[in-house]
Design a protein that fits this description.
Elements (H helix, E strand, L loop, with lengths): L7 H11 L3 E3 L11 E3 L1 H20 L4 E4 L7 H6 L2 H4 L3 E4 L6 E3 L4 H4 L21 E2 L4 E4 L9 E4 L4 H6 L1 H7 L6 E10 L14 E11 L4 H18 L7 E5 L11 E9 L2 E12 L1 H10 L5 E3 L4 E3 L2 E8 H12 E6 L2 E6 L10 E5 L6 H13 L4 E3 L5 H11 L3 E5 L1 H6 L1 E6 L5 E5 L3 H11 L3
Parallel strand pairs: 3-9, 19-20, 19-21
Antiparallel strand pairs: 1-2, 4-5, 4-6, 7-8, 9-10, 10-16, 11-12, 12-13, 13-16, 14-15, 17-18, 21-22, 22-23
The protein binds glycyl-adenosine-5'-phosphate.
Amino acid sequence: MTDHPDKLMDKLVSLAKRRGFVFQSSEIYGGIGSVYDYGPLGAELKNNIRDAWWEAMVHRRPDIEGLEAGILMHPDVWVASGHVGGFTDPLVECRSCHRRFRADELDEIAAGRPEAQQCPVCGTTGEFTEPRQFNLMFKTFMGAVEEEASTVYLRPETAQGTYVNFKNVQESARQKIPFGIAQIGKAFRNEITPGNFIYRTREFEQMEMQFFVKPGTEDEWFDYWSEQRMEWLVSLGIRRDRLRMHEHGPDELAHYAKKAFDIQYLFPFGWQEFEGIHNRTDYDLTSHQDQSGKKLEYFDPASNERFLPYVVETAIGLNRTLLVVLADAYAEETVNDEERVVLRLHPKLAPTKAAIFPLVKKDGMPELAGEVADGLRAHFPVFYDAAGSIGRRYRRQDEAGTPFCVTIDGQSTEDRTVTVRDRDTLEQVRVPVNSLETFLSDRITEASA
Ligand code: GAP
């Protein structure tokens, strides 16, 4: 189905654990459904993806402001957003296309014949989960007494924190429409069918941007953001031929969306949603204005008009991006008659930028290697490794996606030069210790978008 190596998902899960990218949560207790922990390399990779998004969406954009809203919000937020009302019916899910339906709206299921029920979306028959009273949102209680009045929800999207802060951000940052608000943060969904490793989980992190525009201009902004987001993904080194746009049909649209495109990625398990671009109209601002009784209109000084802006949203999962980055970077190849697994991570994203090896553990090489590692560590993450043959050490770093390996050999202690090996081309060059940091930094930045 894809041009990924055979059994790639199994290999990724195994590599992720072996090398400290991703662990199952609470593993020593047998794990907990669909929650994952990020190890030393995973936490670093996640931070690097997060930073790349923030840099592209906030630091480089005079028309976008950053925000960090709380995970817990006033419960009325979720009434206004449609999440409280929208997810309290008995639901069944088609195991084939993962669409959910109200059990009482499917004739055969309502009549007690689930085996005869055809999925209205994909047409598969008899593949429905048992009906269950299902709310997508996790509930918890605020305060000491577990009573209904203190029920709060773990947010299922970051977007609502942005809508309720629209006025605060617009006025404090003195932004004029069109402008955007970007946010990165945790979201929680009690998914009926999580799966495919970190693709769909119950706790995850979103990177979302809400762009507020004048009604009537939303279509051009929608096209603009669709293109921008695609180019950003390509700038991370993700192969363009594994990305495509999919427009939502009327039966796929979320309750808030008038128009939606998914950027899909060709995962090892097929084409699936990676990022969403949504025209949310003034749905959310109108609902919050009605529910809260507070005016959320924008006053346009140029035209002397007051209006509720329309919103074009870009929404991507950070964990899902990490999965795509790993899947896309993974390669198996033969080098000098030896098999190697290599993660061709973009140097900007690589958790470790360089590994430092003394060729042998004597003749002053470990001391110089230690000095080199300490010098570089002030600029970017490096890893010191003196254990095993040099070949084995290379293999370990190839698997971790480290773009450069620096070896300190006999010549190094004489003339203070080292060899730098490039993970992808396997070329080795000799570089003086005193210009090593600049040499590596230039290459890491050169490769960056
Ligand atoms: N604010 C709009 C929104 O939340 P969405 O399409 O439901 O839209 C946006 O989610 C993105 O968040 C998805 O494209 C996906 O990358 C990520 N995402 C959604 N649910 C997820 C889950 N259960 N696990 C991991 N990532 C998820």
